[in-house]
Amino acid sequence: MSNTKTITTGFTLGTVVAVALSWSANNSILWAIVHGFLSWLYVVYYFVT
Length: 49
Description:
3 helices
């Protein structure tokens, strides 16, 4: 039996998109960081509203 571990680091596509949208809408580093943590939730919210 093989024990395989996968470690992923870095930013996901959702994080990058969320930060870019947040920055273009708010011009705020703080909001960009918050929205980066929320990732795809913020992207969906942005396009719905």
